[in-house]
């Protein structure tokens, strides 16, 4: 637990955004979650856009006694927020959605699309790749159209297709090197060959929205699939005679399992089962957020499908299937610690270190270490979000809230 008080010989910072002008800044007094453990009454130095090993004696200090400082959150699977869709919004709307999640601690975000026709998806890939090139997002995740009609969830069945490698290649090419992940039902015709194609091009192959058997899922993992898209959701339940994809994905150390920790998608006992069985190094908490995240209840479109959001739960108007979430990563963090009773260090792995490693970005993000980007989140003693810093600049200044 962070210490309640701290004395310091350095002067307190008076500029409301001292980190933005490149002046070294010291964040002091918090419980700082490091790769080696929790540094109680810790100190973190920000120098420009990076974390530094030391600061000049007269560097300004932000006293964060009684708080936590954790790495910025990394969201692998996010469809939008702030009333904006990453699948269909304008550039300005997409930027608003990104900004919404940054204000909730997500300093690195992969923009996810939903099922559409191929021409539309290749167009969206081009638009989103430009935002990736500008550093606004970490890349693109294609969820659909190569998924099972039996497990389509909130995807339009009329637009689904088998994962033929030629079509998969079209999306990869349209993303101009910015495709990070593609979710597919690997049991469909072309599925295994498409997994191999994705691996060849450095794109994560994720098993999801699948009706695969246990044996078919093992085959996909052996071909190179390394992620379970929102484990348990949109796949057969774990059975005692037909274990299905859940058992195969949970048991294999090569697989990172996505979990949506919003209290709606997963029962707490199921989340605990997955977390304990996979282990803290193989879980990635995701939002699977849609437009309503950080925005409010109402009617929305998810691709071509109409969604009703009521009391924060998104469901298709026709059929009632859960349609993504309204989750933000700060809420996922608080729930994991206060409801699921997971250790803070394990939650940090699931929200930051593990997805950063999966993306191949752990040399820059995912942990608080000298030389890495100054991406961090400040939480109070109750794990409520109070501050967000991205690349050394306050997105949300903890002293102004």
From TrEMBL:
GO terms for molecular function: N-acetylglucosamine-6-phosphate deacetylase activity. Residues 1-21 are annotated as: Disordered. Residues 68-395 form the Amidohydrolase-related domain. The keyword Metal-binding applies. Coiled coil: none annotated. The keyword Hydrolase applies. Keywords: Carbohydrate metabolism, Hydrolase, Metal-binding. It holds the Pfam family Amidohydro_1. Its EC number is 3.5.1.25. It comes from the Bacteria. This is N-acetylglucosamine-6-phosphate deacetylase. It comes from Streptomyces cinereospinus.
